[in-house]
Amino acid sequence: MIATLQQQVNTILLQQQESRVEVTRSQIFSGRMEEVSVFVNAAQLYIRMKMTEDVAATQVAWVLSYVQGGIAEAWKDNLLDELAKGESEVESAEQLFAKIKNNFGEMSEEERKIEQLRTIKQGGRTCDEYVQEFKKVTRGSNYEGRPLIEEFK
Prior knowledge:
Layout: H1 2-19, H2 36-50, H3 56-65, H4 70-85, H5 93-104, H6 109-119, H7 127-138, H8 146-151
Helix pairs in contact: 2-5
């Protein structure tokens, strides 16, 4: 009996200590690619430390409250409309984080190659130097045929 009471007291004391741990809230996320991992990591940590008892909808709303400004604001507005209409698959904070990473995160290798292909210019290089650089950028872009010819400028 005494051992059980002691264990209950220890549990209560431990819970009180955990609730006193300060966790930095996430910074505002504006949609910039370099902000994605910092934002997601901070929000995940805060949810794990302070919001484990909250329902998923509350966690999603909390995360979205930090999505402000830039292109992320319009993205959030669209997502909120989808959520209101029941058209979105976001049912948890983890699904929201995956959606944020997918929409704003780093480009895949193929996407990076396509971006390079669309912006490469000859500049001050010789024609041979430019052709070799163009071939290098082309590898991994999955561009071929007419679309590839149209990018050669």
